[in-house]
Amino acid sequence: MNTTGRSESTNSKFDHLVTPTTNLKEFVIKFDDSLKRIKKRESDEDYDTEHKFRIVKDDEFLLKHAAKVYTRNVYNKFKYELSQVNKYKVEEHEAQDSYNIYMVKRKFGEPEELVVKLNLQTYEGTCECKNFEFVGILCRHFLKVFVRLDVDIIPDHFILPRWKQEANKFRVTELEVLEKDGNAEESKTLRLGHMCQESVKLACIASCSHEDYLIYMEAMKDLSKKLNKDKVPLSAISEKANGHPDGTSHPDGTSHPDDTNAPSILLLDPNISQTKGRKKDVNTSGRLKSSIELSSERKKRKCKACNKYAKHDSRNCPSPLNVKRQRTESFGDGNAVENEEVPHEE
């Protein structure tokens, strides 16, 4: 990124945080919220990169290697550059010193000729487009030369650490900050975080083989003995946190850490739950009933016309008395309309 681009990026970042009336306290709060959003977005991207599989053909070796080492966004950019390889052709020229010279030309469209210098022993080189120096990703001209030379993997010196999948897995912590004891609680938290990072690094390395795993576990046991020497055992500390400052957990005063007769807890697999479809009712036969069947099973109510518990009411009661009453009311309304006086027109 050049100076102008870095400046514009910074300005666009702070445009939505700072206004002419923003004071220092509001700026600090907004800046902290912005950092949290950035970390959340990076965490989501790391999760997608680790768990979402990228579909690559078996004969695309460079793309398959890029899918293993690069993040999703960088992988998509690398894939685009590799897709442009077929638009170019390569002509080999006379070598200079220890570098072979290749002229990469465009087959059609706007003319383009770029020189690629490559050392076939170490696969180090440069391209006139300077795409790797500016962006950090191999350009299509370099990839065209690699395709011609049947290079199946990306050289390590062309893979920048910041584009790797585990770039954010271990964040660097300055040791000078850990040495400050101005705030004891803060220093303890920093030390704990730093030790967890270093332990996870070693665990990732030791998990590759069984021999490394045994070496790691043996070293952890030796380290545990050195740290626990002349110190309170960890079990006693956990009991104090649970409300047993004297290290006892039984009413009779017996020590819980030395209690070897305590029954062990057996952990079983969780119950398998139904993940698809509607859960069946326990009291039914398993068949889902229709709305007509459900309506027929509804609780009967009392009809005011016939004074009986039935599935009808006074509006649709089939009893003769109710039918006669409805007819009488309808005829009465008709007679009332006929007997109304109509004003005469003058």
From TrEMBL:
Residues 114-150 form the SWIM-type domain. Residues 238-288, 307-346 are annotated as: Disordered. InterPro entries: FHY3/FAR1, Znf_PMZ, Znf_SWIM. One of its GO terms (molecular function) is zinc ion binding. One of its GO terms (biological process) is regulation of DNA-templated transcription. Coiled coil: none annotated. GO terms for cellular component: nucleus. It is found in: Nucleus. Putative transcription activator involved in regulating light control of development. Belongs to the FHY3/FAR1 family. This is Protein FAR1-RELATED SEQUENCE.
